[in-house]
Amino acid sequence: MVTRCCIMIYMCCVLKIPFILEQPMSSLLQYRPDFQRLCRSFTIYKVFIWIGSYGGSCPKGTFLYTNYRWVQELHLPLPKDREWDEDVSIKYIDSQGNHRVQGGPALKATQHYPALFGHSVAQLWERNRADIKRCVQHAAKLISTYNAGARGCTGR
Length: 156
Prior knowledge:
- The protein is an alpha+beta fold.
- The protein has one domain.
- 37% of the residues lie in helices and 17% in strands.
- It has four helices and five strands.
- It has helices at 2-15, 33-41, 115-127, 129-150; strands at 20-24, 45-50, 61-66, 89-93, 99-103.
- The strands form two sheets. Strands 1-3-2 form a three-stranded antiparallel beta sheet, with no helix packed on it.
- The two termini are 31 Å apart.
């Protein structure tokens, strides 16, 4: 799954198409060799956000990986005067004395993005529309050039 994701990100980077990949804070993606190689080959920004800053029921730290700097505008501080849903995770110490965390009864409800996050991403895209349009035009030109060259290939 990581390799397929990296191939798609690679294509976006080559074609200069903006992308955002969301990963939970506990994700191991950043340690995978395919992803590390991708980050060495292209400029990939890692933006940390709190889903709770966008109206989520819990803080839920999340990483956004992207090839466009302006996505960093999505980082917001976590509201300090807010009470969070305590049923999202259960913290305990196991029989060996290790601190553990496991999903609580309200965890499943945190899977969706709050509407404010979607609205913020849409506004960000709108503010950067000219940049995105240039990227799409560049990608279309590259694909058109590739297709023109591929027509003469018989595949034998």
